[in-house]
Amino acid sequence: MGFLDMLIDAARQVPSTADVLRAVHLLARRIGSAELEAWADRELSGYPDDGHVPSYRGPFHSEAHVRYRRVVGGIAPGLAPLPPTAFAEELRESKLMRVYEVSVVDPVDDLDDLVRVGAPLVRPWGGVQIDLINRLIDIGGLAVEPGHTIAAAETRLAGDRVAKVVDSVRSRVLGLALGLERVAPDAGDEDGPSTVTPAMHEVIAKTLV
């Protein structure tokens, strides 16, 4: 069985997406594709928080949940949804609504763990975001119960959306292996090609879109 056959089987059957990507990393090294190697590295280690992510990693619309601080009674127990409609109408098309957007920058190992237990991806809000929201409450830009401010908040991306990101990664690996099998069936083998041909590059480029 050749390397690409093993990679096809892994993409379809191996539970760990990280293990599948480590095989892609080895393939990239053997065929001399720095582009493919960099993609596998980013998927394994995660993307920069402020950098570009592939379209299959977002940004996605998500839900916001907040913990209120009450003038009387202190911090309220539990988290409550904060729908976009709570914001003044003139703010609903503003950049402020980016608090409802999530780009999935996490390593695939972390995503696999979330998928395994069916949990959402959670992004806590920073102090600057919370201060801004509380100022909006003060001036009437955000409707909350009288005497309430926000003590903490987080953005949640549903577990099924996280699962789709992982599926997209695995589908790209499968497409890569099947595509290379057509144009360079011995790619990845120890005695296979050590440089990327134009046909191989075309397959790789489609994988990374």
UniProtKB/TrEMBL annotation:
Domain AbiTii, first and last residues per copy: 15-196
InterPro entries linked: AbiTii
Domain of life: Bacteria
Protein name per the record: AbiTii domain-containing protein
Gene source species: Kutzneria kofuensis
Taxonomic lineage from the root: Bacteria, Bacillati, Actinomycetota, Actinomycetes, Pseudonocardiales
